Amino acid sequence: MDAHETEDEIYNLAGALENIVKESQLEIIELEHSVEKLRAESSLLKDHIEAQAKGLGQECIKLRNLQRRRAWQMKIEGLTMDIAAAEEEITRWKVAAEDEAAAGRALSALKQELEEAKGAILESEKKLKFKEETAAAAMAARDAAEKSLRLADTRASRLRERLEELTRQLEEFEHWEDTRRGRNGPRYVLAMAMAGAGLCRFQPV
Questions:
Q1: Which residues form a coiled coil (predicted)?
Q2: Would you place residue 128 in the very low, low, confident or very high pLDDT band (cuts 50, 70, 90)?
Q3: Digit-coded pLDDT (tens) for 53-79
Q4: Could you point out which of 91, 162, 200, 201 has its C-alpha 20 to 30 Å from the C-alpha of 76?
């Protein structure tokens, strides 16, 4: 290989290298443009992402606020239900207390009525006992009166028997007197005297 060929080859290589450098510079420029474009797109995307993130953050805030509001609403609803249940329980307790008070008043009235009934029963028992005692006394008095009447009847019967005996004796005496003295003597006076003497001698049992 001579010097001329070597020089041509060097020129060729230099030209090729220059072309490569130019192409590389063009590629670098294109890459720089691409990088700038990508940077711009990245910036836009970043702005968009930031905007979306901001919006998402606001939505998250809204969501959290909604969740808090819902939680508070649920708490309020629960408290409202608890208050309603407590009011119902209080109402039931009031009704039960009123019923218990009414039952207490009724029980007091029943106790008072029972005491009054006991008093009335005691009074009735006293009256009944008094009546029984009075009836017993009356029966005793009646028995005594009946006994006295029986005794009086016995005495009257004996007196009648004695009177009949005296009358018979008087009749016998009168008959005897009539037979002995006739009917013109003082036999009536004598007979009455004898009858009186017989009655004075009689002792009733």
A1: 69-176
A2: confident
A3: 888 788 888 888 888 888 888 888 888
A4: 91
- Give residue 8's identity as a one-letter amino acid code: D
Q: Which residues contact 185 (CB under 8 A, 6 or more apart)?
A: 177
For the chain, give the secondary structure using H, E and C: CCHHHHHHHHHHHHHHHHHHHHHHHHHHHHHHHHHHHHHHHHHHHHHHHHHHHHHHHHHHHHHHHHHHHHHHHHHHHHHHHHHHHHHHHHHHHHHHHHHHHHHHHHHHHHHHHHHHHHHHHHHHHHHHHHHHHHHHHHHHHHHHHHHHHHHHHHHHHHHHHHHHHHHHHHHHHHHHHHHHHCCCCCHHHHHHHHHHHHHHHCCCC
Paired tokens of 92: 């039931």
Residue 173, both tokens? 């005496």
- Whole-structure pTM value: 0.34
pLDDT, tens digit, 9 for 90 and up, residues 140-192: 888 888 888 888 888 888 888 988 988 888 888 888 888 877 555 544 444 44
Give the integer Cα–Cα distance in Å for 22 and 38.
23
**CB contact set of 195 (below 8 Å; sequence gap of 6+):** 166, 170
